[in-house]
Amino acid sequence: MHSILVYIILLASPTRADDSTSEVESFFEANASNLTSLREVMAPPWVSSPQFRGSTKILWSCLITIVACVYTALHLDIISSEEPVSPLVVKLRVVAVTLPFPEFVLYRAASQFFDAQSLKKKLNRLLKGSNQLDEEAIAAGKQVCNLRYCFFAERGGFRARTGDT
Fold this sequence. Notes:
Elements lengths: L1 H11 L4 H14 L6 H4 L14 H19 L13 H12 L4 H27 L5 H6 L6 H8 L11
Helix pairs in contact: 6-8
């Protein structure tokens, strides 16, 4: 949340970019052949972007790149077709939470991993306890439910309608 406020303040704050831009442009034009001039003059802290890349364009391109990376890296749970909210809105909400709190994605991934491992153990224990497996599979210690199957189940991959709805 704090980083978003800093971005908004930086982008919305009034600057004297026109004055500093004209100073920078005139300096570069006057010292085009002087190779040591950059060591002698301090650059302004904020520069608008008329002819070259300024601070605003750098911040916007960084923000857009971060949002695009977070958006493509997220693989959300499977959303039911009966949900009132579209999958795009759900993903954009998670992106908005992830930008200031990147640990949120790590927490979700770790939580889903531990839940899938727990489900795998429970399902394999139930299947071994029932008579649905042949004796050879039980003796070999084969697992019928693997982690991929349990991740799919944990993320909402299986839907069943009951008579109650």
